[in-house]
Amino acid sequence: MTATFTQAAVDRIARVVQIPSKETRTMSALDFVHQAMEHKVASQLLDVEVNSPFGIWYGDDMEPVLRFISFAGLVELGLRAGYLHLMEWEGARLLEQSLREFRTENPAAERVDLHLLDALIVHFDAPPSGSWSFGEVAFASFESYLALSGRLRGDGAVRSFLEQTSGHRVPAGDWAALLSPRHFADAFADGTIEGVPVTDVSAGYRLLGYLERLADILESLREHTELRSGIVRHARWVSRAERIRDRFGFWVQRMREWDRVSNEAWSDELWSAYAQRIFGTLVAEQERLNAPRPWVQPEHQQEPVVEEFNLSEDKQLEQLLAEGRVGAARELLLKKAMQMHAEMGERMLGSADFFPWAEDLVALGRVLAQMGSEDAAAALVAPIVPRLVTEYGESDCAGHASALVSSAREGRLRHRQESQEAPASGERVLRALDQREEKPHQRSWRSDLEP
Amino acid sequence: MVRKKKRPDVAIAENVPVLQVDTESLRGALSSHPEHAVVEAPAHFPLDNLRWSSDEGWMPNSLALLCQNQATKAIVFVHGFGGSADSTWEEFPRSFRTIPEAALADAFFVDYPSTTHTVAFCAAQFRKFLLDLLREPTTKVVKPSLPDEAPHRPVSMKYEKVLVVGHSMGAVVARRALLDLDRDDLTPEERNSLTILFFAPAHKGARNLGRLVESGLGLDRLPFGGAIGSLLHLRYRSVADLTKESECLADLALDSKARREERREAEENGEYLRAYVYHAQNDRVVYDDKFDDDRATVPLMAQNHRSVCKPRDGYQKPVEALCNLL
C-alpha cells in the first residue's frame, strides 16, 4: 500500500511540473524521466544559461530542462516531508541515473539553483528511513505546496503577470488600470479599457492569494527548517519577491490617490502589515539562502519605479489636481494641515502671529472642504473659531471659519454621501480655485482663496 | 482510462558517473531528517485532479482525495462566488487525513466557473455530477480519478452516505441541484444517503453585492475593495441571482418548501432537505436568516464570510461539523 501511494505521489509530481494542455496528455513520472533522458535535457542547461544574460526566468518553465529540475526538486521536498518513499517507486533507479548524468553534464551551473537536485542525489546514496506521518505538519504542508504549484502552473495569466514583473519599471498597463476605480474595474473584468489592452489586474489579486497560501505554508513549517528552505528554493516563480512587492506597493500608492469613493479606511500601516505577512518570511529566507536570483537586472539598467515629483508643495498640489488625483492632493493638504495643527497651542498663546497663521489654516480648511473633506476642515478650524470671532469678528477669515463649522454641523458631507453624489473632482476644485485666482503662476493653496 | 503506454528503452547504466557534488556538506544539512520506526500508509491517495467522465471542460481544476481502500462515504465540497477547489477548502485535505471518521470517505472538491455563469446553469451541471456520484460513482467519477495502481473498485459500488458541503453561493448551487435532482425521482435510498452542510450560505441573499464580489474575488487585499466590488458586480451573471429579491432565491425557497411538504404528505423522509447551517459572527456579505425548515443556525464567533469554512490552528469548527455528520 505504501508503494502504491508513492507511485501515485510521484506521478502527481510529474503532472504538476508539466504544462496543462488540452492537446496533449500529461505523462506519468516514469515516462517523464524516460523522455528527459531520451531528449538529453541535461545538455540543454548551458544553452538556457547563455541565452539568459540576466538569469533564467523560471515562471513558465517552458524549457524541458527547467521542468526536469523542478520535478527533481519536488521529489526531494516530498522526501523531506515524509510524503514518499523513493526506493519504492519503480522508476527510482532510472531517476538516479538521470540525475547523476545531469550533474556530470553540468558540473558548474551558475545561474540555476541545483541544491535540491544535489540533495536528491545524496538521498540515493543514503535513503532516509522516514515513514508517513500524514497527520503532521510537514506532510500536509508539502501536499498543500504541491496543490499550489499545480494551480499556479495552470494559471497562465498569473504567470504572465509574474513575467511582466521583471525589473524596477512598472508595466505601462498598470498606470492605465490605476487611473481610477472605474478604469481598474474595467481592467479587472476585461483586461482592457474600451478596447485598449492594459494589465489584467485580476491576475494580480490571484497572485496575492497564491502568495498568502505560500506564506501560510512557510509559517506552518517554522519547526521544519529543511523543508521550509527547500520550498523557498523551489518556489522560483516568486524568486523576484521584492519586485513583486514593489509593484503592488505602487498599486497601493496609486489607489490611495483616487478620489474618495467610499468610507473604506486604508492606511500605510495596513499595507505594510499585509506585505510583511506575505513577503516577510519569504524574502528573509531568500536572503539567507543566497540562491541564484533570476532576472534581476544590473543596477545601472534599472529604471525608477515611479517618476518622482521634484516640485514645490504648491506645484505638487496643482499637478495632482490637474491630473485628477484628488485623493493624493487631499493627503498632501492634510499633511500640511496637521503640521499647522501641531503649532496650535503655541499660536493660541501668542498675539502677533495668531491671525496670519489662522488665515492660512482657514484657507487650507476651505480647500479641503472643496475637496469633500468638510468634516476634517471643520475639525481643524473649530478650536480657533471662538478667538477669531471675538478678536477678528469683522474679518473674512472669521466668517469663513464659522461657515466651515456650520457646514459640517449641517452634515452636508453625509447628505451628499446619502444622495450618492460624488465628492468634488479635481477638475471642480481647480475650477473653483481658478475663479479666485488672477495670477495662476503665483497660485498657492492660500492665495487661491484670497479674494 | 489508460494512461500507460509503451516506453522507449533507456538502459540503466551499471556504473553511474562520479558526482561533482559537495555531498558531505549536503549530508550535514540533511542529517536532521526525521526518522520513524513505523511505516503506516495514509488512508487516502495524494490529493489529485478530479476527472469526471462527463466533465466536458466544465470543472477541470477540481480535486479529489480518494481512499486507498473501498469508500462507503462521499463528501462533495462546493465553493462560493469567486472561490476555487483549493483556495476555499485549503485546509480540509490535511484535516481529512487525520480524522478517523473520514478514513472511509472519498472527498471531491468541485471547482466550477462561479463568476461567469448563472446559478441555474452551475446547478444544472452540478446536478449531473451529483447524479453520477449517486448512481455510477465508480465508472463516472472514481475510476477515472484513481491512480492506475489503485485497487479495483466494484462497478456496482454505491456510497452509503453523500455529504454535500457548500460555502456561500455554493450552498445555493448545491440546494438548487438537489431540488432539481429530486424532481427527477431520486430513489428513497438515494434521498436517505444525502445530507447538506452549509457555511455562510447565500440562500437568503447577499446584504451587499459589492461586498460579495469583494470577498469572493479577494479585492479586500488592497485598498477600495468594496468600491471596486460595487463597480464590478454588474459584470458577473451569478451575482444578480444572489440579491435578496432575486427570482432564483424565491424559487429556491418555494421549491424547498413544496418538496418538503410533498415528502411529509407521502410520509417519506424529508430530512435531506434540511441543511445544517453555520454562520460567522462578522459576516458582512450574506443575510443569516433561517431558510425554510433548515436546522437551527450554529453561530461561529470571530469569523467572517471567507474564514468561516477554513479550519486552521485554533479553529476546528468546520472539521467538527463534518465529523458530526459522518
Would you give an account of this structure?
The complex is a heterodimer of chains A (451) and B (326). With 451 residues, chain A is mainly α. Chain A has three domains: 2-130; 155-301, no CATH class; 313-449, no CATH class. Chain A has 23 helices and two strands. The longest helix of chain A has 22 residues, at 268-289. Chain B has a single domain (42-206, 238-325), classed as Rossmann fold (3-Layer(aba) Sandwich). In chain B, helix 2 links the parallel strand 3 and strand 4 (105-110). In chain B, helix 3 (119-135) packs across helix 4, helix 3 crosses helix 5 and helix 7 packs across helix 8. The interface between A and B is large, with 85 and 69 residues.
How many helices of chain B? The count is 11
How many distinct domains of chain A? 3
Morphology of chain A: elongated
Shape, per Cα inertia axes of chain B: globular
Helix/strand order of chain B: HEEEHEHHEHHEHHHHEEH
- The strand line-up of the biggest sheet of chain B is 1-2-4-3-5-6-7-8
- Mean pLDDT over all positions of chain A: 79
- Beta fraction of the residues of chain B? 5-15%
- Class inferred from helices and paired strands of chain B: alpha/beta
What oligomeric state do the depicted chains represent? heterodimer
Q: What's the CATH H-level superfamily name of chain B? A: Alpha/Beta hydrolase fold, catalytic domain
Helix content of chain A: 55-70%
Q: What are the defining features of this structure?
A:
heterodimer; A: 451 residues; mainly alpha; two-stranded antiparallel sheet; 62% helix; 1% strand; elongated; disordered C terminus; B: 326 residues; alpha/beta; Rossmann fold; eight-stranded mixed sheet; 11 helices; 8 strands; 34% helix; disordered N terminus
